[in-house]
Amino acid sequence: MALRYSFDLGALADKIDAAIAAVLANGLRTADIKSDAAKAVVSTSQMGEAILKELQALHA
Q1: Which of 23, 38, 44, 55 is the most exposed place for a label (fewest CB within 10 A)?
Q2: What are the structural domain ranges in the chain?
Q3: DSSP per-residue codes, 10-39
Q4: Tens digit of pLDDT per residue, the chain (60 long)?
């Protein structure tokens, strides 16, 4: 939200949102958002790394 509304960086926020959505669609979850659809429960650090990897792949 800060990127979009405080810093007027909506395009960057959209890219990050897309990366997060892709990681969640692949079934990764942290323990606090675990669901029956989760393929893997990962640490917060691992989730951050997965989001960064997806961001790099989507927008290389």
Answers
A1: 44
A2: 2-58
A3: HHHHHHHHHHHHHHHHTTEEEGGG--TT-S
A4: 999 999 999 999 999 999 999 999 999 999 999 988 789 999 999 999 999 999 999 887
